[in-house]
Amino acid sequence: MTYSIVTHLCRAAALGWLFGFAAHPASAQAPGLGASLELVDPNVLRVCADPRSLPFSNEAHEGFEDKLAEWLAAKLGKTVAYTYYPRATGFVRQTLNALKCDIIMGDARGNELEQTTNPYYHSYYAFVTQTGRGLDNVQSLADPRLKGKHIGIIAGTPPATVLAVNGLIADAKPFQLMVDTRYDAPSSAMIAEIAAGTLDAGILWGPIGGYYARHAPVPLTGIPLLHEQGVQMDFRISMGVRRTDQDWKRTLNRLIAGNQNNINKILLDYGVPIVDDKGEPITQ
Hints:
By secondary structure, the protein is of the alpha/beta class. 25% of the residues lie in helices and 23% in strands.
């Protein structure tokens, strides 16, 4: 059960469930508690989270965002509490901006419903296939060997555009982007089909592909998609806070800057492929 990552990594442009929210503009200034009282409870790290979205979070606190929350709470001398809501339309409105919690552990920049901290990791979309089946050295979706292959894709994500441009979409199998994660797990289902051989390959956001490939019953290879034209395939991920919470954001930025190695270790323990500012892989 391996997830090998080809060298010189980079990261890509509209992450499945994460980036669905950036397209919904804020209709009004997000609510807040005022500059003198930014947090719902100053003694508790109140986390907005999805109840069933591994490798990110779940109600059993088994995801890497759960581990990051525990680490962050310890650094701040706080306990941890969670407000759960599926990462679908309405997530920010029903959690962070409803003043039920104070931090979203992972989100891409550009979401107008919140403000984001400095990034704490940088990852990418990856092409995932069975090791030793003839596609584990594909470097681009323009590779002619992919013609006629059945490739899994999360509908509405950037790689879908690249598949269409390369004439591969007719044979692709779409998996739904916006789901209630309490009942559906499209990324896990895609990995299961790749492992079973009913799909030749799939394209997943690196943290998701890395985690599920690590738990697959057969060896899988993940290849960073670094050579696609016109579509961003890598992203820097930050923590999200209310737009009014400036002091809280500065506190988080200081913790990220001073503890990047500790954060990286948590990510790597979950098979999250990460790169540095030069696009070089971080392995320890």
